[in-house]
Amino acid sequence: MLKKKKTEVYALGQHISMSADKARRVIDQIRGRSYEETLMILELMPYRACYPIFKLVYSAAANASYNMGSNEANLVISQAEVNEGSTVKKFKPRAKGRSYPIKRPTCHITIVMKDISLDDEYVEIDSLKKHKWKNKYIAMVYRDMDSSGGIWDKK
């Protein structure tokens, strides 16, 4: 029986204290990119979500080099997803004996990396990216100031 060599590794970060929407904003930028390009992007982005994602990408690359013996130059982020975790709920005391609820959202981040040197059926890196917006061509209509009774037609 032949065994197929494993080409993917992953790193999972659970209960990271930030909103899933804020983490998705960063994850959408790095999905489908190479490992080295991802590290540069994450170091230069000004968001707080970049640091835990940077640590997960670094951990997934370390898993790939240790478990599969792959080179970091051949790694590509094939999947990256953010799921909502549990919400930590606390109460803050307010005036006149009232209380105010504080909700701290958490999220679970999964980074899956693929070694392109071990993969026989490698698809182009650009096709792995999820395009959020499709190309839509919007026709701009310019109004002629003379025919529409613009500024100069006032009495």
From TrEMBL:
Its main location: plastid. SUPFAM superfamilies: Ribosomal protein L22. Keywords: Chloroplast, Plastid, Ribonucleoprotein, Ribosomal protein, RNA-binding, rRNA-binding. Gene3D superfamilies: Ribosomal protein L22/L17 (3.90.470.10). One of its GO terms (cellular component) is chloroplast. PANTHER family: CHLOROPLAST 50S RIBOSOMAL PROTEIN L22-RELATED, LARGE RIBOSOMAL SUBUNIT PROTEIN UL22M. Belongs to the universal ribosomal protein uL22 family. The globular domain of the protein is located near the polypeptide exit tunnel on the outside of the subunit, while an extended beta-hairpin is found that lines the wall of the exit tunnel in the center of the 70S ribosome. This protein binds specifically to 23S rRNA. This is Large ribosomal subunit protein uL22c. The gene is rpl22.
